[in-house]
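Many introductory courses stop at the sequence. We go one step further.
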Amino acid sequence: MDTPTLTGRVAIVTGGGRGMGRALTLALARAGARVIATAARESEEIERVALDANTELGDERVLAMQADVAAPADCERVAALAMSRWGRLDILVNNAGRGMKYVSERFLTEPTRFWEVEPDTWRMVIDTNVNGPFLMARAAVPHMLAGGWGRIVNMSMNHDTMRRRGFSPYGPSKAALESETVIWAQDLDGSGITVNALLPGGATDTGMIPAGLPQEARATLLPADIVVAPLLWLASREADGITGRRLVADRWSAEDPAQALEDAGWSRR
């Protein structure tokens, strides 16, 4: 199946400088969208993504913007930039996230019990992974409503990982994000704006994996770009009416999206 065209669309990808965020930013730009890629701190990474995309495509498709999704004013600035630069905002990919390495670099081998997590670390993860998507969606949705169409895609993870020993607060943060996904989809029902969750389907080769992971273990990780194909479908007209759902990228089939949705094990009721 051909890659869905997104020509004329305007997208925001939070955490767009590395891993899945970089892959999604480049894919959206290659599909024809204009993209604002954000990062809270690593401005050089998003600037590199923008340079790479714009050089490859011969056009200013990607803008880099330093912005913290946990800061309401930053979220408003990102949405305002999309409107002032391109006059519309169609797609929001809530990809920015903080993982377990902020709790401990040894989280894969030495689980940290929840009462051993520093309160400031807990708040930081929740602020980025739960409050951040809310604040970005809150800033973006009024513009989408004005346009009568929109897409919000929340990057999630496997349900097993949400329940994994030693995975506080990362697991609870993604469980909350999936609840947000279902509730927002209902709030926006009939508006032309869909809200869905997308996850790789397993441990993925991103910056959330400790640098010291043995090479044999790293070789088993899913590639960061595994989420590209289902994201482009969710962002397209082909997914009109698909909302409050989750897609697992390693089960994705462009030939049979309905089966991929069923395989994800979560349908809106």
